[in-house]
Design a protein that fits this description.
heterodimer, A: alpha+beta, Alpha-Beta Plaits, elongated, B: about 240 residues, Purple Acid Phosphatase, chain A, domain 2, six-stranded mixed beta sheet, five-stranded mixed beta sheet, 13 strands, globular
């Protein structure tokens, strides 16, 4: 990662945390050869779309690869006995 | 035997209505009590808390929660707390709660907690006032947890509920560099000194579910992205 990519990745990560529509602190951002790669998980499909919107609108003109998945919400597995 | 459903880091927002509702409506089929380990909301606004409160009001078992760091972001954690409590849930920050379930009493000591790091790699209350304030925040949370555990008295089961992690084992999968922002060993010490049957925490989305305190108490990281389910169920006292 060259210096420009390095600082851009940090800037995008901070923007994802600070943007009030997102407040996403648990996503990883890598910039490789100017292309942005975002990985991790968010709670809803809308938030995944919002991540992509933010990166494209504020850091546009680059390839953006969004590998963000949505946390599942199924009922519980078998209970675990503790103790 | 008591069955406890637990989850954390559900991060409710304006777009979350209905997300966990089917699972929440069915909690009573799986457990006698639901515990929520903080980060109830995304940004900590009262409006987000109202979305969750509407769904918690449909849960048919007692609900006990603590707040997380996200619930402080908008600067109105007391409004988040009020909205959740209006739905009939109990939100703890250093208070003890005793719930009767299936003929037994379950004591819950709850705090949000804070960071600092783990034994041998922890911040110290030293140097700049900002650093002292950081560590004092964790020390206060640990003291509140200790008071809460002490005042529970003799319940059939004792559970420590927090948002930040008390041990590093359940953080494995997170980057080592951020461990001091994910929890503190100071939150574990009262549990081992005063005793509990189970410790529940969240906050570490990429950690792992299972760990144990140095004193031998089970610790479970119930962050929803770790569980990959709406909640986990633990059976105690069997």
């Amino acid at each position: 990662m060259d210096a420009q990519d390095h600082y851009l990745a940090a800037e995008i990560q901070e923007a994802l945390a600070r943007d009030p529509r997102l407040a996403e602190l648990h996503l990883d951002v890598a910039v490789v050869g100017g292309a942005v790669h975002i990985t991790g998980e968010v709670a809803t499909v809308e938030r995944r779309d919002a991540v992509l919107d933010l990166v494209r609108s504020r850091f546009g003109g680059r390839d953006v690869h969004c590998h963000v998945s949505v946390t599942p919400t199924e009922g519980p597995q078998e209970p675990e006995a503790i103790g | 035997m008591i069955r406890i459903a637990a989850v954390g880091d559900i991060h409710y927002g304006d777009d979350s209505a209905g997300r966990l509702l089917p699972a929440l409506r069915a909690v009573h089929e799986h457990a006698e009590l639901l515990l929520i380990a903080g980060d109830l909301t995304r940004r900590g606004t009262a409006a987000e808390a109202e979305v969750l409160a509407a769904e918690l009001s449909q849960v048919q078992v007692p609900v006990v929660a603590v707040l997380g760091n996200h619930d402080y972001e908008a600067g109105e954690p007391e409004r988040v707390r009020a909205a959740i409590e209006k739905a009939g849930a109990v939100v703890l920050e250093g208070e003890p709660a005793t719930v009767r379930a299936d003929g037994a009493t379950v004591g819950v000591a709850g705090v949000k907690g804070f960071g600092g790091g783990f034994a041998g790699a922890s911040g110290s209350s030293f140097g700049e006032p900002e650093m002292k304030l950081f560590m004092a925040t964790t020390e206060l949370a640990a003291a509140a947890l200790a008071d809460s555990l002490e005042s529970l008295g003799s319940t059939d089961l004792r559970i420590a509920l927090m948002h930040y992690a008390p041990i590093p084992e359940t953080l494995q999968g997170e980057r080592l560099e951020i461990y001091p922002f994910l929890g503190s060993y100071l939150l574990c010490e009262p549990v081992d000194r005063l005793g509990a049957d189970l410790v529940l925490h969240g906050h570490a989305h990429r950690g792992r579910e299972k760990g144990v305190t140095p004193g031998g108490t089970a610790v479970r990281n119930v962050a929803e992205p770790v569980l990959r389910h709406a909640y986990a169920v633990y059976e105690l006292g069997g």
